[in-house]
Design brief:
This protein has six helices and ten strands, in the order αβββααββββββαβαα. Strand 4 and strand 5 form a beta hairpin. The chain is globular, with a radius of gyration of 17 Å. Bound molecules: zinc ion.
């Protein structure tokens, strides 16, 4: 007799997203970036910074963001690239439009994503934050698959680190940065995180 679908059978369809003690997410495709260094001694990871990026802006094809974060962007491939190819930047994660999760820097290390920034009167957010880039643009709706993976990733990060807040790049660098932009739906992200939390409680009960 066929058994009814259950939460556990649903869970077997995709592995649970976890972040190990080494700071690497189990399901992420790893693309190591040289643009990283050690966090200051004793720095607790308290903040998640959500970003939006696409290269050139508004284009969601190709591997240009990967190339930028690994210092392999061809400055001759597009006029815009010539202006940014020399930047030395990275983020811990990139979530592509189809929900693919890429990781460039271990969460244990400092990625170079925030630039000049401050949060609750602490400057230099790279020291104590995790940077998550969504492939997107400020005024283009982000993809459902991106909210789903971002929600799962945030849940896993909260298990591993004492996260106090989740903010946008524009929140910690106002006037200088606008991403992830008005197209990013914060209430939708909250629903994803909360829905998963409720489901887990129901599981136990
Ligand atoms: Zn940003």
């Amino acid at each position: 007799m066929p058994t009814a679908p259950t939460l556990s059978s649903a869970a077997t369809r995709r592995p649970r997203l976890t972040v190990g003690a080494n700071g690497f997410a189990n399901i992420a495709r790893q693309i190591p970036s040289p643009n990283q260094d050690a966090r200051p001694a004793g720095a607790e990871i308290a903040l998640i910074v959500v970003h939006g990026i696409s290269l050139p802006p508004g284009n969601f094809t190709g591997d240009h963001v990967e190339r930028l974060f690994t210092n392999r962007l061809d400055p001759n491939a597009h006029p815009y690239f010539a202006t940014i190819a020399a930047l030395r930047v990275s983020a811990h994660f990139l979530i592509r439009r189809d929900g693919e999760l890429l990781q460039f820097v271990s969460c244990a290390a400092r990625a170079w994503h925030a630039g000049a920034s401050s949060w609750r009167e602490r400057s230099g957010c790279n020291d104590f934050s995790i940077g998550i880039e969504l492939e997107g643009a400020d005024d283009v709706p982000y993809a459902s698959a991106q909210y789903a993976v971002l929600g799962r990733l945030i849940r896993a990060l909260r298990v591993r680190y004492p996260i106090e807040d989740i903010v946008g790049h524009s929140d910690i660098a106002p006037g200088r940065k606008t991403d992830p932009g008005p197209a990013f739906d914060w209430s939708r992200l909250r629903q994803w995180v909360e829905r998963r939390r409720r489901a887990r409680r129901g599981d136990i009960a």
